[in-house]
Amino acid sequence: MGKLEEFESIRKNAKRFLDLTPSLKDSFFQYYDESYKPGAMDTKTKRLMALCGGIVSGCTGCTLGQLDMAIQEGATTEEVLETCTVAISLGGTLAWSQVSMVVEYLDANGMTS
């Protein structure tokens, strides 16, 4: 299974988990939605920050999920790659494997040339 397929499986199972725990689902989404609302920073910036965190922590679901959401919020390829640069500066060579998933995602979605 490739990383993009792994991400879809993670996303599906996370949604299933939340469906099986309705009281947690409600409070989780209330907090989650509030965290990404525009405030001092816009939502796109918050998603790019979360992408950096996902890369540095080595979390496949976090990395690809936040990448997807950042792009939905209007993040450009250049902004994503710059975020990856910051993540690598924080996470060193361990962040490279996560960045390779980002590049794979961008390629798969026609965002690179």
Describe this structure in words.
The two termini are 25 Å apart. Helix 1 (3-20) packs across helix 4 (60-72) and helix 3 packs antiparallel against helix 4. Helices cover 78% and strands 0% of the residues. It contains six helices and no strands. It has one domain (3-108): AhpD-like (Up-down Bundle), CATH 1.20.1290.10. The chain has helices spanning 3-20, 22-35, 43-57, 60-72, 77-91, 96-108. It is an all-alpha fold.
How many discrete structural domains? 1
Give the integer mean of the pLDDT values.
95
Major sheet size, sense and barrel closure? none
Top CATH class? Mainly Alpha
Radius of gyration in whole Å, from Cα? Answer: 14 Å
Q: What helical percentage do the residues reach? A: over 70%
CATH topology: AhpD-like
Structural class: mainly alpha
Can you count the beta strands? 0
Termini gap: 25 Å
The CATH architecture can be given as Up-down Bundle
Q: CATH-wise, what's the superfamily?
A: AhpD-like
Low-confidence stretches: none
Overall geometry comes to: globular
